[in-house]
Amino acid sequence: MQVCMQGSIYPHRASVAGVGMLIIICFCFRRKLSSLKLTHFWKKKSQTLDNIEAFLGDHGPISIRRYSYSDIRNMISSIKDKLGQGGYGCVYKGKLPDGYPVAVKVLSESKGNGDEFINEVANISRTSHVNIVTLLGFCFNGSKKALVYEFMPNGSLEKFIYEENKLKGHPQLDCEMLFRIAVGVAKGLEYLHKGCNTRILHFDIKPHNILLDKDFFPKISDFGLSKICPGKESIILMLGAKGTAGYIAPEVFSRNFGEVSHKSDVYSYGMMILEMIGGRKNFNVKAGCTSETYFPHWIYKRLELNEELALKIIRSEGDKEIMRKMTIVGLWCMQTDPSNRPTMGRVVVLEESLESLQIPPKPFLSSPARSPALLST
């Protein structure tokens, strides 16, 4: 009886000891893994700070003002008005000591390797155009990074063009206002592509990045994904897709469609124009999820059949002409082959008469940029 009892107890003790040893091993492995992750995190963070410091050193005194982090806190502490939030961080309404209103973008400490901050400071500080938002200053204090812009009272274009936003109290813009905004953005992009000392490709043209002042005058913002083209060439080499799903040009995600160049911005601009015309986002077509109907196809069909878009903002024959003009130009901008798209200088053809515009070929692709794997912003 005693022997049997001992035989039943010892295996039990052995199994308990084995489980205990396994737990200890797992705990040690987890600590080691956490330590490696923490080391990698701090190494990466240190590299980011070094990259930014090297950039600021290489470029010498930058023309815009450098603020301390205490300056940034003073700008936004008295108002405490958050204008927006995204993966990059938060944007707050603030004011300078003289009371001048500003928009302050406080960047997330864990966001990227500092490239977006560098792009924003380097590229937008090179610009000076009525249709480009003005960067007034920046803050870089260790891990604390912020950008100070002129304040745009009406916020972004997206609030005013989608039917769904009317329920939120945002009025829709009339046809003449939409036309003026489209031409203003075209002039801003033409300046970036040809008017700067160095050609700049934006890579993220969309309604969210078009800001409106108190008179609804448009200005291009957010240069975090922008690229500078060396010399007079606009063709650049890129690793991976860059931009926002739905607005990415075909050649950006597959070089089989052509070279990445200033024509990639033209494509994004075209999609934005079609959204302004259709009054909805390009991935929210009423055809439903059962059909991969490409948004430009939906617009093109109505152009072919001479159908109206059933928008309440169309109140006269003049409005119809404006919408048709913008539709034709938007579809030219969205041609699959980059060589068939107009330059932004040519896009300012929006100001010409409707009779001079020919209907373009139908874009033959459905949008591959719907894939979540291609989301870069």
TrEMBL record:
One of its GO terms (molecular function) is ATP binding. It is found in: Membrane. Keywords: ATP-binding, Glycoprotein, Kinase, Membrane, Nucleotide-binding, Receptor, Serine/threonine-protein kinase, Signal, Transferase, Transmembrane, Transmembrane helix. ATP binds at residue 105. Transmembrane segments: none annotated. Residues 77-365 form the Protein kinase domain. It is a single-pass type I membrane protein. Coiled coil: none annotated. Gene3D superfamilies: Phosphorylase Kinase, domain 1, Transferase(Phosphotransferase) domain 1. Its main location: membrane. The keyword Nucleotide-binding applies. Belongs to the protein kinase superfamily. This is Receptor-like protein kinase. It comes from Quillaja saponaria.
